[in-house]
# Entry
Amino acid sequence: MATRGLSVTNKLREAVLGGDYAGGTRLNEVDLADALAVSRTPIRAALSTLAAEGLLEYRPNSGYAVKSFAAKDIEGIYVVRANLEGLCARLVAQQGLSDVHRGLLHKVLAESEELQNVESWTDEVSDLWRDLNDRFHNTLIEASGNSHLAMMLRKSRAIPLLNQLKFRWFDMGTLARAHDDHSQIFAAITGGQVVRAESLAEEHVYRSGQRIIEHWRKMDTRKPAVATKARAA
Amino acid sequence: MATRGLSVTNKLREAVLGGDYAGGTRLNEVDLADALAVSRTPIRAALSTLAAEGLLEYRPNSGYAVKSFAAKDIEGIYVVRANLEGLCARLVAQQGLSDVHRGLLHKVLAESEELQNVESWTDEVSDLWRDLNDRFHNTLIEASGNSHLAMMLRKSRAIPLLNQLKFRWFDMGTLARAHDDHSQIFAAITGGQVVRAESLAEEHVYRSGQRIIEHWRKMDTRKPAVATKARAA
DNA sequence: GCTCGATTGGTTGCATACAATCGAGCTCAG
DNA sequence: CTGAGCTCGATTGTATGCAACCAATCGAGC
# Structure
């Protein structure tokens, strides 16, 4: 980490994405500065950056607050993301995979296959899968060679709080299905089945989104007091 | 404009989008501060914001530079944008238009129709069309009711330098075609033809992208000296 | 008792001073 | 002549003090 500003930005981003702050929480500059042992300047830089990334909301003369997402927002994001991941798969299928990327995907799928043998869905397994899932999608994005698409997808995948709950609700059945999706997308791509690759990828993300929205709704309605308090604070 | 920071951000954004700086130009903080008669603080805030928006590139201890786009980058951006505009049209067709939005679109199309009667393609006509075009697309985006999609499309449409050349190369034939596209997209949406609306919108944007890339290539190769100098600076 | 307005505590906005860093250009050894 | 190392100037990174602003609280008048 070169500058304090960047360091603080990353720490804060992680905290927000990890769900350390409830949606609507106002972020006080001096408190953050004290907590991270830097002056307000790098804090302000970080907040500004995160706001531009869509993780925080900014109000002039009032400061920054963690953006809160309703289930409807998540739905909107997933519609977009599904479309973009579909586009990504289509592009990769069109232009073919490089040996490097094919190798990476193959490795991910092999490890995923192995993960099917565990008996139950523990937090450890959850973390492993999260890593594999990220690698699969990130490799695909990289293989598309479209940096703008990469940026858009990164933004569509960075949602406060979501990291926290992601995959905790998985079970072995869901895992099997997700792994199977990945395998089929990979097969469609290597087979040059352009349209199929797009449909599969889009559907894969869309379905995963539906599950997440479901759980988001539960989380949303479970603690209305906290949400209200945070919004008012 | 509430704060100087926001004011400066807007001014700088306009300048960058308007093509006041060549791609690769380094932006000196003190120069900008002098030029805009503020201190470095709001300048730095603005630069940070614009970097997060993808208009500038940041290098620690080196500062901000106007991002330079090769024709290939523009192509990548337009592939994404075409997809997203297609999605947008599909969503609007699915959920139907409110009376307000229908009215706005109708008005835009009427004015566009009128614009067909001018004899030749002047700068004034160009500005009028730019406004109409923006209104058409922005209304559609708003009608989709998906704020995340709106953000993505905003980012996909904000490209340094592009504002400068956009529509200068239009002629009456291109205008007629673009207007016809808009009309048909509108018809497909009001008729509930979901798939057709998506295809038409995607194709409309894609075609417009092809024309722009063409002209971008000309611009790019015309002045390699400037580009090199700017990149080196 | 209620409403409206002044006051004040707290927070953000901005300017400025100083420290850290980078790179261009120079020097000098080989 | 070439290249490695160094110095210095220019530019960015950070801290801090003060000004501006907002919102909540309290008090006075109706």
